[in-house]
Prior knowledge:
Layout: H1 4-13, E1 21-25, H2 35-42, E2 45-46, H3 49-58, E3 62-66, E4 75-79, H4 82-90
Amino acid sequence: MSDPAAADAIVAxxxxxxxxxxIEHNPHRANYETVAAWADDRKPDWHDDAAKxxxxxxxxxxxxxxxxxxxxxxxxxxxxxxxxxLAFAAE
Length: 91
C-alpha cells in the first residue's frame, strides 16, 4: 500500500485481538462454491439478512475471523463490502 495513512486507518478499524485476525475476500471461490453455500457451511454472523442477500446476489463477500483474547474462542463476520465488514466488526 502506498498510502501509510490509509493503512493506519484500516488497522485502527480492526477489532481488538490478542491472538490472530484474518480477512478474506471471496473465500467461497477457492472451492467453486456460491456465497450462499459457503455461508451455510461457515455460518458467519451478518449485520442483517439484507447484507447477506446483497453478497449472495453479487457473488462477492468479505469475511473476518478474530480471536479477541486467546486461541480458544473467536468471532466471525461477513459482509458484502469491506467497509461494511469493518463497521460490523466494530459493533
